[in-house]
Design brief:
- Its main location: membrane.
- It is a multi-pass membrane protein.
- InterPro entries: BP-dependent_transpt_permease, MetI-like, MetI-like_sf, OppC_N.
- It is built from twelve helices and no strands.
- It is mainly alpha-helical.
- It is about 70% helix and about 0% strand.
């Protein structure tokens, strides 16, 4: 058989090898107890978000003033009610849906923008300076202030929060991708593809991008924590979700005036934010270690 031609037998070997690598990565990830705890918390949030209408017994926005400010453990409201008599558990469950939706959407948009800028900047040296100066301009603003500036221009809504957080995510992602591209494009197989006349698009999409996925996955996971925390912070400041939307940050803002009479209104959504942000961070740390090719499985 002529050299350079891949036989069907060799083609079939590639898939089991990829599956074996995924299994080894998952096995290394499961050896990290904190990462396992984080995955359980994230799985619970996803379940709450997807099945919110079936899990919650009450409408999260319907008021019931005679039952206002019931404490945790009250009959029919095991997490209590807020100052308008709305069930705290129902609002917490629906808040998980909003946090997850905003986080996934904003991180995805930020990844797309960062991937594009990072790939172009890393591969084409002539465009590197221009793109990186634009990225440096975005870095000149503290993240939360940049998000507040964007929302101030666009208006207060969850859609604008998604836009603000996605723009905030672009420069960091672009820097990470650019660094990976600069390293990968010096490899011999990339040089070989260039000498064979392969197009730049084929080299970038088929040979460079797949070898940059590990840092991108880690960034996306840890950025989810930042996105959820930022959404809560902006809603707390009145720039994100507006009443009566059951968003965790907005729930804390509504409960701050009742810290002494009904502390559960602030404590419960605060614990939810803390657990989810912690979960995404530890899973990101675990993925960073598991995707490290220098890591060895414990035997």
């Amino acid at each position: 058989m002529a050299s350079g031609v891949i036989s069907p037998a060799n083609a079939r070997v590639k898939q089991p090898k990829k599956e074996r690598m995924l299994f080894q990565t998952f096995k290394r990830l499961c050896q990290n107890k904190l990462a396992v705890f984080g995955m359980i918390v994230i799985a619970l949030q996803v379940l709450l978000a997807v099945f919110a209408p079936w899990i919650a017994q009450y409408d999260p926005v319907v008021q019931n003033l005679p039952k206002a400010q019931l404490g945790p453990g009250a009959e029919g409201h095991f997490l209590g009610t807020d100052n308008y008599g709305r069930d705290m558990f129902a609002r917490l469950v629906y808040g998980a849906r909003i946090s997850l939706l905003v986080g996934v959407t904003s991180v995805t948009l930020g990844l797309l923008g960062g991937l594009f800028l990072g790939l172009i900047s890393g591969y084409y040296r002539k465009l590197d300076g221009i793109i990186m100066r634009f990225v440096d301009l975005l870095f000149a603003f503290p993240g939360i202030l940049l998000a507040m500036l964007i929302i101030a221009m666009l208006g207060t809504s969850l859609v604008n929060v998604v836009i603000a957080i996605s723009i905030w995510s672009i420069p960091t992602c672009a820097r990470i991708v650019r660094g990976s591209v600069l390293s990968v494009k010096k490899q011999e197989y990339v040089m070989a593809m260039k000498s064979l006349g392969a197009s730049d698009l084929r080299i970038i999409m088929k040979h460079i991008l797949p070898n940059c996925t590990a840092p991108i996955i880690v960034f996306a996971t840890m950025r989810m924590a930042t996105a959820i925390l930022s959404t809560a912070a902006l809603s707390f400041l009145g720039l994100g979700a507006q009443p009566p939307t059951p968003e965790w940050g907005a729930m804390i803002a509504a409960g701050q005036d009742f810290m002494w009479t009904a502390p559960h209104m602030t404590v419960i959504p605060g614990i939810a934010i803390m657990l989810v942000v912690f979960a995404f961070n530890v899973v990101g740390d675990g993925l960073r270690d598991a995707l490290d090719p220098n890591m060895e499985l414990d035997t």
